[in-house]
Amino acid sequence: MNPAPSVLLFTVLSGLGFGFLAALGVGLVQPAGWAAFALWGLGYGLTVGGLLASTTHLGRPDRAWRAFSQWRSSWLSREGIAAVATLVILAPVALSDWLGLGLSRLPGVVGAVLALATIGTTSMIYAQLKTVPRWNHWTTPAQFFAFALAGGAMLAGQGGAAIVLLALLAAALVAHWHFGDRRFSEVGATMGSATGLGDLGVVSVFDPAHTAGNYLMREMIFVVGRKHVTKLRVLALILACLIPALVLMLPAHPMTTAATVVIHLIGAFAARWLFFAQAEHVVGLYYGKR
Amino acid sequence: MTCLPAKTDKKLGLAIDLDTCVGCNACVTACKGWNDQGYGAPLSDQNPYGADPSGAFLNRVHSYQVQPEAAAAITVSFPRSCLHCDDAPCVTVCPTGASYKRSEDGIVLVNEDACIGCGLCAWACPYGARELDASAGVMKKCTLCVDRIYNENLPEEDREPACVRSCPTGARHFGDFADPDSKVSRLSAERGGFALMPEMGTKPVNRYLPPRKKDALDASPLAPLLDIKATGFAGWLDRVLGKI
Q1: DSSP letters along A20-38, please?
Q2: Structural domains of chain B in order of their starting residue, each with its CATH number
Q3: What is the distance between the alpha carbons of residues A235 and A242, in angstroms, rounded to a whole number?
Q4: In this complex, do A70 and B97 lie within 8 Å of one another by their Cβ atoms?
């Protein structure tokens, strides 16, 4: 699948943002005054920035509001609703922290649950797709949750918890790669089943259907960069999990927190890029490609 | 709502005969032509006469080689378009309700006025039946020529999908698969019509009819000429040279 920059930005930044908002919502950190403005602002900035980035990959962004209507069947619609609900419900808590209003923290807990639900809906957009066997697996939600929780704990300065969550994230990533590499053959889609000609013999492409590219090939048959998979996987593990975990063992300081999050984000982008770039869509079978 | 209808009164679809199709691309051209001017945003092309042409199509013809274990290879022309699935994943993933399956005839359509062009339906489709129109920014797909089949302004013989109407070999058949006595149902039953990628659980309506069994020659008529037995001096030479 084509790793569109807007979708990469959205899933990585919003994932981290919602993880952090959940941490702020339950009160793992309870900043006051301008510190609260800065931290809540960071949480809102990451999530809203990511959400806005995601609208740029739409063909008709002017109609994005329509995406709130189909919650009964569509994970993408549920995601939109959950995201906006989270941001709205957490707003009074954020304002209360900033302005010292002393309002109840109950909406914070509800908002935290909704933030995690948003992560779940985002991951299900991918995990629901039978057409992309690598994504159609429990390790997809697992890694999305692990990224959000580990990132949120890191930003909230929860060193100990963050180290445990980073270890879980590493496990989730390795599991996703381990099972993902087998998923396509497990699902059993082949050129034979795609064309229905498999019973007659071995099917291969005789002549391509078109000599120029098309939407399908650009969007779903992305083969560039799979060559460096192993290197990228190791880099993602080191940057997203290992280095942040090691730095977190040092005495806590705002600068080390910032540094770990930046390094973690670089690793997260590498991992998420791979998540897309490595995912093979079954439509590639019609083109003799994976 | 993008929930699927529990049941559709009719199941309109195509039976595509892979034995008869010669891969002439008339259906591709007819489809593109009709959908340039009728229903919804015109199917656009980008840079059509330039170095890197590209465009949206609702029907494309592939060509495959099939190599049986112990027979000559065959080539199969393979038109690929929307199968109007009963369990269409492209419909349920749609966040805006633009994608829908009609309960009256089972046709899967896109309401282009509500489509945001997110592309998730194209991701959900195993068959590559949906292409985003790069000019209009909305998703395009086969409408089963819904603007022809019910169109009383057209002569009756034209009230079928453009691809079916234009096929010079009669490889494409249009009808109601919910009716066991329809032409397409009978054709599919007689010829062993099959669905594509059943493992995806989409329950396609369209059926493909497999290539018929080809005759196989027992042996080449030229075979006796190749089996030359040398005699006399040449035979002696053949034996000696064979031993060296």
Answers
A1: HHHHHHHTSS---HHHHHH
A2: 12-209 (3.30.70.20)
A3: 10
A4: yes
